[in-house]
Design a protein that fits this description.
Blueprint (H helix, E strand, L loop, with lengths): L1 H14 L9 H5 L7 E6 L4 E9 L3 E5 L5 E5 L3 E6 L36 E4 L3 E6 L4 E7 L1 H5 L4 E13 L2 E14 L4 E16 L2 E12 L8 E9 L4 E10 L7 E11 L3 E9 L1 H4 L6 E9 L1
Protein name: Outer membrane protein beta-barrel domain-containing protein
Keywords: Signal
Organism: Marivirga sericea
């Protein structure tokens, strides 16, 4: 049973793994029946190419040939360039890459949701996720290394999100495990509820989370806390960090950090992360490395 409870703890850790408009005169003067071709440059270095649809004080809306309609907050826009009406737009390597995995940091979640109707595969543990609605998603899966240890496990991860303000999101989610040891013929379960607030947007945000949980045959866990953030530094690269503080009944409370980078493609995100705390640095100065992958099907 100690072995089973230890596996649940490891499974949980790996599963959590300006308002002014910017206008171009050429856009304003173009007849409405003609679609204007434009290039939008953002303050964070992204480049969007497509056909102008509309613009107000909050958003510029364009239509691309690869990802459809895109709404860009005007406060993120650095400049807009109009292309000749007769010039064909080629969607080259500078075309914007959507952040397909704004839900996950290295371990825990933000208050953003998976795309409605989208299907995703994740490792750590091996999980299938689906965006059921704009505000609700659910994941189910298992762990291959738990099977190697002869402890079949099922994992369930529902999450509900709600927009509270222009750049404020709320979340409540659950990480639940149930398993059975083939060696001892005993079963056990664990459940951790998380709730928190995200401030920002998918490419630049900060999330504070409170966790409540329990493991079968173990007293209820003390509430513990995390503060996580991610920032897009180029069209394909993001930086992520996530710190945890875990109060205990002993004098020494537990704190640890996950940090690393994320590489983006059209259909996947690849994370290289490091698990870091004071004890680990005695052996590995930069922390224990790990890889997390999310693929959009």
């Amino acid at each position: 049973m100690k072995k089973l409870n230890f596996i649940y703890i490891l499974l949980f850790l790996t599963s959590l793994v300006g308002q002014a408009q910017i206008e171009d005169p050429k856009i304003r003067d173009t007849p409405s029946q003609i679609k204007t071709k434009i290039v939008v440059y953002t303050k964070t270095g992204e480049i969007y190419k497509g056909f102008f649809i509309s613009q107000d004080k909050d958003f510029l809306e364009i239509e691309t040939t690869t990802v459809g309609t895109v709404r860009i907050p005007t406060q993120r826009i650095k400049k807009i360039e109009s292309l000749s009406v007769d010039e064909e737009i080629e969607m080259d390597e500078d075309e914007r890459l959507q952040q397909i995995n704004p839900v996950r940091y290295m371990l825990g979640t933000s208050a953003f949701n998976y795309e409605k109707g989208g299907n995703y595969l994740r490792n750590n543990p091996m999980t299938y996720h689906r965006g059921v609605t704009d505000n609700f998603s659910i994941g189910v899966g298992t762990s291959l290394w738990a099977l190697v240890l002869r402890v079949p496990v099922i994992y369930v991860n529902p999450q509900f999100t709600k927009k509270l303000g222009k750049h404020v999101q709320y979340k409540i989610g659950l990480d639940a495990f149930a398993g059975f040891s083939l060696e001892s013929s005993e079963g056990a379960g664990a459940a951790v509820l998380n709730t928190g607030i995200t401030i920002g947007e998918p490419d630049l945000n900060l999330t504070g989370t409170v966790y409540y949980g329990a493991i079968s045959e173990v007293q209820q866990l003390y509430p513990f806390y995390s503060l996580a953030g991610m920032a897009r530094i180029s069209k394909k690269l993001m930086l992520l960090s996530e710190g945890f503080y875990v109060p205990t009944e002993f004098e020494d409370n537990i704190s640890f950090l996950f940090y690393g980078g994320r590489y983006l493609t059209d259909t996947a995100s690849y994370d290289l992360g490091f698990f870091y705390n004071q004890e680990i640095t005695d052996f590995i100065p930069f922390g224990i490395p790990f890889i997390a992958i999310t693929i959009k099907l």
